[in-house]
């Protein structure tokens, strides 16, 4: 009975994509809730307002970085789903695990925004990215091994998907290592990696 159920469960790629879209939209919206306007009690002049906005800059930078990160991973997941003929229960649970790490990103973002100078906060943010990339890598491996990809997929696509994930994760790992020099070096490098994948998708293949 269990074996028969597992064979028929979780086969809809469309439902998986719909769930993913909803969770990504929620996580990306939740990020902005950490941005709050300066309190009126401490603003008595233009100078106070500028000072209050400047104090928000770490959170604003982290918001922009994570928004780009989630956008990159959304594109990566949708690319995989678009090449699937069907899903199965194992692949569905891998993607659900991937979505769990998506929901964690607002927390890791707020942590780093609050404790920018602390390596622990930077490493927590990087681990979030690492788990996202690892889940995508596992999902693609599961899909190709299980014969879930479409028959008309170009021969170079499977290797290109894996190469893109591994390359990005290697760059993120290098960025995390820069925290040995200073967390701001790490943040700057990770932001450059994100801008690269957003602005130069053809070059990053």
Write the layout of secondary structure elements.
Blueprint: H1 2-8, H2 13-32, H3 46-55, H4 57-82, H5 89-114, H6 119-145, H7 157-177, H8 183-199
Write up what this structure looks like:
With 205 residues, the protein is mostly helical. The protein has a single domain (2-199), classed as Rhopdopsin 7-helix transmembrane proteins, CATH 1.20.1070. It has 8 helices and no strands. It has helices at residues 2-8, 13-32, 46-55, 57-82, 89-114, 119-145, 157-177, 183-199. α5 runs antiparallel to α6. The termini are far apart.
Q: What is the mean pLDDT? A: 84
Classify the oligomer: single chain
Q: How much of the polypeptide forms β-strand, as a percent range?
A: under 5%
Report, as a whole number of angstroms, the end-to-end distance.
Answer: 44 Å
Radius of gyration: 20 Å
* Derived structural class: mainly alpha
- Main beta-sheet strand count, sense and barrel state: none
Strand count: 0
CATH topology, by name, is Rhopdopsin 7-helix transmembrane proteins
The portion of residues assigned to helices is over 70%
Task: Determine the number of helices (DSSP H or I, runs of at least 4 residues).
Answer: 8
The geometry reads as elongated
CATH architecture: Up-down Bundle
Query: pLDDT below 50 for ≥5 consecutive residues: which ranges?
Result: none
The topology string of helices and strands comes to: HHHHHHHH
Feature tags:
205 residues; mainly alpha; Rhopdopsin 7-helix transmembrane proteins; 8 helices; 75% helix
